[in-house]
Hints:
By secondary structure, the protein is α/β, with parallel strands linked by helices.
Amino acid sequence: MKKNYFTSEKNIIRLFVLYAILLSSIQFIYNRSIWGDEALLGLNIIHRSALDVLKPLDYAQVAPPLFLLAEKMFSTLIPNSEYGLRLFPLLSYWGALLFFVLIVRKQEHGRLYIAMALAFFVSSHTFLRYSSEVKQYMTDAFSLLGIFWLVLREYRSERARVCWLCAGGVVAVFLTNVSPIILGTSGIYLCYKAAAGRERGFGRLMIVFTVWALAFAAYYTAFVHGHPLKGFMTEWWAENHGFLCLNPFDPSFRTTTGFILNSMFSVCFEMVIHAAKSHLVFMTILCELYLLGVIWMINRKRFDCLILWCLPLVLHLALSAIHLYPFRARLVLYTFPGMMMVCALGIRYIAERSKAGKWICVIPVLMLVLYTVRNFPIDFRDFKSAISYMEKTEVAKNINVYISKDYLCTYRYYKDIGAISERINIINSQDIEYEHIKGIPLTWLKRNKKDDDVVNSVKDCKGRNWFLLFTPKQLWHAAFKHTLDSLGYKQLDEYNTSGAWVLLYDCGE
């Protein structure tokens, strides 16, 4: 019976791996509309040569050089399509999944808890979303798990170990912006093992650390030092509560702490948290599971697991406090696999002290997996459906459209790849001219328009006009609709889709 039980657990692990590959593939093929931040980075990639993507990017975008080169290669192989831009993040997701399974198996937590950690991994809408997004955040997770696997795996010789660690570290430096955190964690782990007498001495580790330091020095000199957006990014994140505040008497302490706590656990199950009637309750449960997982590792003296799974988050918080690395859900996405492993160990802590035992694991796993299926595939700001609806509904030859600032860069991307019909005529075309002030898009400086500016932008509209807004739930867009009504324009049609609100008005002659 015992043999059959563990065989079934092994099959469950395989099932979850296939389930993750299936869901991520469906999400990729679904090909949701590209959104603002993706569009801005995509414009840089499609309009620049392979060498030019290594220079400071337009539209206040920053990304690692190897990531940009990979994106350029795939976008050239599959041109004028989101598929080309999103293929590398998908491959990074699959690679991260493979390394995660290898790592948790290597740490010998038991097949049941490996399956549970995989269930958490698969059920995260946030992780699935970024598996098909033109941003580097999934590559960060792939880099962390890849380096951790190089640190943990067995080698035929010490020389091979040193070579693989050196090569992996150099690649990580140029592939992810969080390489100091990843390599710092790995270095501390290797030193811990050496001090515990479980690995070779520090001599050869110094070779590895020296190569990593030289690679980062070269990267910093070539791509970070003197970057034109460095000051702007620091100021922007400071104003948007992206840095940890350590002074409890500071007025921003409470707000900043709230943002950071929300980021830590919304990265796990963003869709579940926001859909719950009380997301604070769900976040509290996750926090308690995480703390219980830490207690389990301390009680079992699994300090190796504690370093690998918890230290990256601690280091990121520390660097955030000194304004080096901002803290937001997408920016700490790479810590998600570790958080899920710790939460799985927290459930193990409860299961080992409960009469129900391992059956306690089944309930949260089933709930998360079923919720994933219910809210899938993930959609976000469905620009393409909004444009398609206008083209099908409008009988006139030309379609006059006012595009909200949230969709200007998305429109620019689809226009540049030839996906926008010639029938579309943009009313507020002046806002789509991406002029730059110190490398910052002019449209970014127009986010908070005064009421007079809004009225002036639409008061001269004539005839039938479409207005593409983000969502009626956003106050700015609700106020925009009120402006249209106050000008005496007559509403003829309305269409709502995921993250897009389309209004048709007769603005008179």
